[in-house]
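ENTRY TYPE: protein
WANTED: fold as tokens:
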Amino acid sequence: MLYNYFVYIVTNEYRTTLYIGVTNNIQNRLAQHYFDSNNAKKSFAGKYNCIYLIYYEGFNYPKDAIYREKQLKKWRREKKNLLISNFNPKWETLNNEII
């Protein structure tokens, strides 16, 4: 199934910092994080070099994606880690797997 909106989690090289976001163009958003990480470092993701996609969920409606993003941001780190591990057990970079 193709989705129009995504909630995603990116992390840094050492998997110590997580950034949760929502977008309607995940490839473009990942490119923006990468650019900011290598240049201006104006955003949280850029400042902490969070450029590695490790988790995502697709949604048909923006309202649903925004609700889920807010929900995940409230979770404790342990719960986020479990969510990621269930989806991506080795915390592998998924940047090239997203269509």
Remarks:
- Residues 26-38 form the longest helix (13 residues).
- Residues 5-87 form a domain with the GIY-YIG endonuclease fold (CATH 3.40.1440.10).
- Helices lie at 26-38, 44-47, 62-74, 77-87.
